[in-house]
Design a protein that fits this description.
Helix content: 40-55%
Number of strands: 12
Strand order of the largest sheet: 2-8-7-6-5-3-4
Strand content: 5-15%
Radius of gyration: 21 Å
Distance between the termini: 34 Å
Length: 384
């Protein structure tokens, strides 16, 4: 099996699994049960994990809230800030290429009477900063721009976007799920007010994530119930998942440079070979300012789903775009916003490499891909 869909999710590292096991078998206490040792021990694990993850992103432990994942973090940040600051203004700004957890959150707010501006992007998927400067005003309370696009890998100018938002008195949220462990993240240096993260993109478990909230931001509670997460996010904390998240982050912090170099080597080889050895293929996303592990293409005259099926028969796993949009009708909203013609966008393929991939696997993938595209084009009525 060759797994090249690491942008959808990642294999949990064995060290992470080993760190989690005691939380199921020995340290299984409720972190809120502080009056006896088992509960206090769980609370200590929670505090240490919060410190590890917070330090990795340049935050203070009290600025980090654990959640069930990136989707919850996005929903919490966007909806709570918008509703909490509605008295100041009801104008919100995001982009046309956001993850659906962000886009659907804004659509829900639109239904409540908020005004939402969707920023355009250029052919590389970069946000139009001039449009942002024109649109952001005194009525704008929140701007939300993802740090790295999950489909094409384009990296946004978050630090510059933060300055534009702050100059108008607006807060900035960024969905940093795809950026964690790949880009150096210092939330203070970047100037973001809120940032969303998820463990399963960095070789950690599914079902756990985090939301950074700058200590100057008074975010509304997201869930009602107990006093967990400093009375902001009720519900018994997922200690095994949180410990696993922290362990995954700890492993990345020790070798992030080597990890990124490994991803870059693999994706560069993929991009070079695919674009040179297969005709009528377009690399999507920014050619330089991109996630080091994402190689995203559009192949003319074939359907991306057919390529994915061919790869699957060879035990190679990839996707036609975001796993969160699988099964939805129409072409990718990201590629559409970038101006990719509808017919071409239907031939999209995303190969996203990770920690466990090798150059030998790249060789195999390219060879199978070449045969697949050739075979499918022979059958295509669009190809002469």
């Amino acid at each position: 099996m060759i797994y090249m869909d690491n942008s959808a999710t990642t294999r949990v590292r064995s060290e992470v699994v080993q760190a989690m096991i005691p939380c199921f078998e020995q340290n299984y206490g409720n972190a809120s049960s502080i009056y006896y040792k088992l509960g206090a021990d769980a609370g200590a694990l929670l505090a240490e994990a919060r410190k590890v993850v917070a330090e990795f992103i340049g935050a203070k432990p009290q600025e980090l809230f654990f959640t069930s994942g990136g989707t919850e973090s996005d929903n919490w940040a966007i909806k709570s800030v918008a509703r909490g600051l509605a008295a100041k203004g009801k104008k919100l700004i995001t982009t046309k290429i956001e993850h659906h957890a962000v886009l659907h959150s804004f659509e829900a707010l639109q239904a409540e009477g908020f005004q939402v501006v969707y920023l355009d992007v250029n052919e590389f998927g970069q946000v139009n900063l001039e449009q942002l400067e024109r649109e952001v005003d005194a009525q704008t309370t929140l701007v939300s721009v993802m740090m790295v696009n999950n489909e094409v890998g384009t990296v946004q100018e978050i630090e510059q976007i933060a300055k534009i938002a702050h100059n108008a008195g607006a807060l900035l949220h960024t969905d940093a799920v795809q950026a964690l462990g790949v880009l150096p993240i210092d939330v203070k240096k970047l100037g973001v007010d809120l940032a969303s993260f998820s463990a399963h993109k960095v070789y950690g478990p599914k079902g756990v994530g985090a939301l950074f909230v700058d200590e100057r931001v008074n975010i509304l509670p997201y869930m009602d119930g107990g006093a967990q997460e400093r009375k902001k996010r009720a519900g018994t904390e997922n200690i095994p998942g949180i410990v696993g998240f922290a362990k995954a982050v700890e492993l990345l912090s020790k070798n992030q440079k080597a990890h990124c170099e490994h991803l870059q080597k693999l994706s560069s080889e993929l991009i070079a070979r695919v674009t040179s050895q297969i005709d009528n293929v377009v690399l999507t996303g920014h050619p330089q300012k991109r996630h080091s592990g994402i190689a995203s293409f559009c192949f003319e005259f074939v359907e991306g789903e057919a390529i994915v099926l061919d790869l699957n028969f060879a035990n190679i796993y990839a996707s036609t775009g975001s796993a969160c949009t699988t099964g939805s009708a129409g072409a990718s909203h990201v590629l559409a916003a970038m101006g990719v013609p509808d017919m071409l966008s239907h031939g999209s393929l995303r190969l996203s490499v990770g920690h466990f991939n090798t150059l030998q696997e790249v060789d195999k993938v390219v060879e199978v891909l070449k045969k697949s595209v050739k075979r499918l084009r022979v059958m295509s009525p669009l190809c002469d």
